[in-house]
Amino acid sequence: xxxxxxxxxxxxxxxxxxxxxSMFDFNTEEEIVKYLIDFEQIKELAFQxxxxxxxxxxxxIIVLKSKNAGKINYTVLEGxxxxxxxxxxxxxxxxxxxSERNKLKQLNLNPRDFEVSCDVVKEDTRDEALFKISAKHVxxxxxxxxxxxxxxxxxLYSQYRSKGLSSNEALDKIKGITPExxxxxxxxxxxLNYLTSVYNATKSYKSDLKQLTHLDTDVLVSRVxxxxxxxxxxxxxxxxxxxxxxxTIYNKILALLGKSVWVDENLNTRVFSVQKQWNEIVxxxxxxxxxxxxxxxxxxxxxxxxxxxxxxxNNPISNDTKTTEDSVGDNKETPNLPANDTRENTTNNNDMQxxxxxxxxxxxxxxxxxxxxxxxxxxxxxxxxxxxxxxSRQSSEYFKISISCTHRNIxxxxxxxxxxxxxxxxxxxxxxxxxxxxxxIFLNIEINGQQQEYEVLFNQQWYNESLSKLSANPKYSKICxxxxxxxxxxxxxxxxxxxxILAFLLRALLEYTAKAYxxxxxxxxxxxxxxxxxxTVKGHLSDKGLLNxxxxxxxxxxxxxxxxxxxxxxxxxxxxxxxxxxxxNKYQKYFSVAFDRLSEGVNNG
Length: 605
Hints:
605 residues, five-stranded mixed sheet, 22 helices
């Protein structure tokens, strides 16, 4: 439980470690406020508060209480934008324009009238507060962007490591205060380290790059990261930095990747829609010119380095005849260098080999249907030795496999699905020997002796293709956000609360899609009600031959739209799983062809 206190907003310090701006190395609160003016629209929020009063019903500020030189300090952990907005009104009004300052004077505000209720966190309850914050932003109602989530995990990890915790202990601490598993946390930290290295390398081409948090990183993470690791056979140290033995060449590779995304803008998720295109993109040498040569040089260096070390190991005469200077050099210990360090990492080859496993691991290629309780997921994982033989299930190696899932409706403990998990479709994360793979499962457990069959709204291919088509254009980020949220509820359950959420999401997707389509071409519309908007888009798609007669006819009846409207506007209206599933079936093709047109972005009317 937290104590509650009312504070003057000017007595509350902004949090320099907040994921939104901790990567910017701000030195003063004024710098933070200026950043939030430029990128987080806090002017509008500030004047809204000034004109209407400060209202925090159901959402109090969370502050950390600390003592420094006998003085009590309060730092905001949750609510930085709101506190910064109040500080803008009363402390940093010099950042406003002259007309805005005149408007502020007319409001005649007093900070005492804007005191805020805060939940107070002490150091011994900090983790409890962080769980509340992360649950809200990692997988909650106000989700952070992918980069903000990565920064959040990286900051926590760095803090715990600085306190003397081991890497695994730090991950366990973070896992205890977030709704995600260790694999997801570890991947987020790896991805931020990698993106930071790409960013730093790319500045050799463009020194005035926008800050990393303002750049589109989707293609670099979702398409490039894993194929690059596999291509170069890269490993990670215990802090999830890439271990490289030739930082110069590796940096050139990263710089070319960053340049293609952020400078030349040749590489995006439309050009690189699936990971299996990696080899084609590298070999063509058109999208990322020069990449193939750098990768070849890196591999040749690795091959020659390994050959030289093996020869040295097998040639005792050569070892015995080394000069004193050589011997001293060989006895020096060279630490694993971070990926953005251009010095050559001369880690002994034997040490590298000791970090590698002698087994390969494989996950199912097809979705696994699970119908029994307390199912051990390691049953579906295969370990294979160097000559292609499967490792016995009794081997202790299987205990080194870590299996998890980030979805909130499934619980996996010690690689076993807990019987409180809900039936549905899930993506499973499997980690072994520093490598992570994924596979799909359909959980369909008997309840009260009855096999509960379930349906999915859209298949996984539809989600993948839809997001691939739209994610390249930031204008459609809200549409992508709705699609991702629908995906969270993809398996229809018996929870009526979820049907309500799905109804809101489906209606939003219908409206956003129709309005975006009409704006793009543009089309003349009779009025702004949703049925009319869909009719307008449907007609245009039909004229272009993208919907056939039967598909157009199926969209003619708009009763489902009225059902969605009724649910949203009338608390007495109900909706069933049949209503939700029918609506999804009906509009799946409509969405697909509309997304095709939006992704093309060509106004050929």
